[in-house]
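yo

u said u wanted the structure for the complex thing, so here. seqs first:
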Amino acid sequence: MNSILRPVVGGVVLVLLVTGSALAHHSFAMFDHTRTLTLKGAVTKFQWTNPHAYIELDVTDAKGAVTHYSIECTSINMMQRAGWRSNMIKSGDKVKAIVAPLINGEPAGLLLELTLPDGKVLEPGVPGANTYKRTPEQE
Amino acid sequence: MRAVGFAVVTAFALSLLPLHAAAQTRGASTIPDITGSWERYGARGGAGAQRDATMPPPAPQPPLKPEFLKEWQTKLQAAREADAKGTPLATNATLCLPEGMPAMMGATFPMEILQSRGQVTVIEEAFTQVRRIFLDQPQKAIEDVEPGFYGYSVGRWEGDTLVVDTVGIKESVRYQNVPHSDKVRIKERIHLVAGNILWDEITIEDPLTLEKPWAFTFAYRRNPDYKLLEYICEDNREYADEGGLQKIRIGPR
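structre next:
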């Protein structure tokens, strides 16, 4: 993956920033880089499309209230190169997703890591994934 | 009979040799085989990065004329501030538009080059971008080319280097968001610098926006095992809101 998705070296920092966002298809600045949410829920849809795939997830809290999250992945081209397949996730699958949430508070996030029902862990190859601060799971 | 059959087969095989040789050379020069899949190479830098002579130097800042430089820097600053606030500005990428020239040669995803009679074709996996370089044909006057994403490209082999000239790039199609006029011209020198390392030396000329030509180089590594995947913007959930900010559609369609 590294050889395919890499930031371009710019002569100045400004160029680096512009190029970085271009390679990422669009800016990921709408997602919070300072915390993560750990979402455990049931998949209602796995949208396998470009420019990005999405996982639709129903998360039920301790009181039984359901919150629906839209989880943005990366390009399905990048995901295929990272080993993902469209048939890996089905509606009803119980998964755990670590996401960088939308800053504006809407129920959506950028997928950093997904644990499948069989325990397999997948990453979608978000550019600069290690720049998102992981925060502990809250029960 | 068997001997005659062998002789016929041998003669047939020998007759193919000159054709094969002709495909490899044109005149005295040898045209390199650059057909196949390539991926961007040598773009990573920074502290501790291993660099060698096959990695091109970093691109310089565009030598824009002062009034255009100010516009470019102002927009860059606005984009940075919007990103810092978590409300990024929408771009052509948000709208799932292809990158066009010369950005597509940056090979966000792997790229395929096809050499056929009279034409070199470049296919970039991201957005399924395709550009055609017509060989040994005269370039058109800029005003005779309808502006588009990839422009109109002609090329010729100078020894082992494919020299390409492109005009007719839409003003909305910008690399690094650098403004250009309808007079922009992109020159390329595409050549191998090692057996499996290809360079595209790009020079952008624009008498209206640039003080001098803007030159930078993209490098690629051959990846003979890679088969390009399709890329269709089938459901783009990103969009620009009325304020020009990038948003995403929440919830399934």
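Helices of chain B lie at 2-24, 66-84. Confidence is low (pLDDT under 50) at residues 8-24 of chain B.
cya
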